[in-house]
């Protein structure tokens, strides 16, 4: 068996062990089935949810806000990074709020943003956007402030015009750094969106289903939606890894 | 040739000369604003990781003006140093010595009157170092060179002036004094 197949076999075995342990705990009554329904009942509930158009509205709402907030955050990082390259005073001007937001536990932004953006989608978008944008802006600004030292020296030695330096040295480094930040930003944005659903009274979203399930101790629904959120997060991470391999191909070469 | 103890500011002096470091005092006079051929000490960070070895080699000449001579030189240097097979390799795949050779060859292929080499042979073992000196260094003849080195053997290259950076400033020393310093510090 090759190393990759052996690793895959252990991966599958680990997942099966978790589900088997869950099933055993639930079926033996070690934990009440009201709190921990067995996996087969959760799977049944998941199939019921998947057949409901309402579920797909919640799914689409979370997915759309996730894509929009991450996309807008990346764009903000790129634009501010480039502006900071043209004029470093721009970065120094915004550095304190950006670093402050980046240092905050992300979900504490939700009630504050909610005060200004109101309930529902706008709060979700702006909260997730703020978290992603702070990460992206801080990352892009760090690149434009200091290229790898050897490249910095080469760019100066060659007496390149600023525009040439931008395209030859800055942009590829900027893209590389943004992709690294994106790996952290994508799951973080999903965390904030789900937390928004649970903290402010949103009408659609996967977090709303979790919140409503918890409110009436409908743990089958809660676990089923948690599973969907987990799969969504996993797919997001895989997509970022794929983009990273394609766009920043030299990192894996 | 520029010598001095570790941390005395040899690389900083080169940085100041090319404008990569802001001066707190003093001035830099360069005869022209033309590009400088520069081989950096940290060979990996001096190579652009998204370009192949070949594209890294030709980057300065392509940015200045597409130059057939630089391409011919690059091919000749790669072949002479026995690393022609690295032409399509990515920098992250190279050893420290190979990266340093690529940096040195790139400086040799850069259309410039002024050459700055920062510890150009530091990561090369003696055989490769001798080969690099034999094959690449003649390419710099006729150009103004500023070389930072810790290696007593580099004195054999023969320089017009030896500058020793000390706590009390920069001193013009003889080749013998530079050799004494380098042997005492290694």
How widely separated are the two ends of chain A? 26 Å
So how many helices of chain B? 7
Q: Specify the number of helices of chain A.
A: 11
- Sheet/helix structural class of chain B: alpha/beta
**Termini gap of chain B:** 17 Å
Describe the protein's architecture and organization.
- The complex is a heterodimer of chains A (253) and B (186).
- Chain A has 253 residues and is mostly helical.
- In chain A, 83% of the residues lie in helices and 0% in strands.
- Chain A has helices spanning 3-27, 39-50, 53-86, 88-103, 109-117, 121-145, 149-157, 162-199, 206-215, 219-247, 249-252.
- Chain A starts with a helix and ends with a helix.
- The mean pLDDT of chain A is 90.
- Chain B has helices at residues 10-18, 43-46, 53-64, 68-80, 96-109, 126-135, 175-185; strands at 2-3, 36-39, 114-118, 144-148, 162-166, 169-173.
- In chain B, β3, α6 (126-135) and β4 form a beta-alpha-beta unit.
- In chain B, the strands form two sheets. Chain B has a three-stranded mixed beta sheet with strand order 1-5-6. Chain B has a three-stranded parallel beta sheet with strand order 2-3-4, with helices on both faces.
- Helices cover 39% and strands 14% of the residues of chain B.
- Chain B has 186 residues and is α/β, with parallel strands linked by helices.
- The two termini of chain B are 17 Å apart.
